[in-house]
Amino acid sequence: xxxxxxxxxxQALRELAQRRSPKxxxxxxxxxxxxxxxxxxxxxxxxxxxxxxxxATLDADGAPLxxxxxxxxxxxxxxxxxxxxxxxxxxxxxxxxxxxxxGQCDRVLLQYxxxxxxxxxxxxxxxxxxxxxxxxxxxx
Length: 140
Hints:
The protein is mainly β. 7% of the residues lie in helices and 20% in strands. The chain has one domain. It starts with 9 loop residues before the first helix and ends in a 14-residue tail after the last strand. The mean pLDDT is 86.
């Protein structure tokens, strides 16, 4: 059982997605195979439930962790927006995601907010358990 404040690792994320039984998507988000910008009117506010987060802010001893890495994980040459890109929780943008369940289609959704100089962009990607990888973040 997950709680909305629980920090999920790769194994817990994969298991969470495998326990769901997604139906054909009927929600306002659409497929979201890769990262898609989602304006506020497309986010199904009343139909989603937060399941947890991939944003670890404290270590096992309760000490604050440094800012999450901006390193991406693409060992096979995929790109950030690619539907085939791996979902590696320690890497950007996954290390800044919250995890939700859609009550309309029962999918698990990853959501993070991109902040630029003059914009805020909410992005969503549907979680596919076969894309989750437990890749270690190596120190630079």
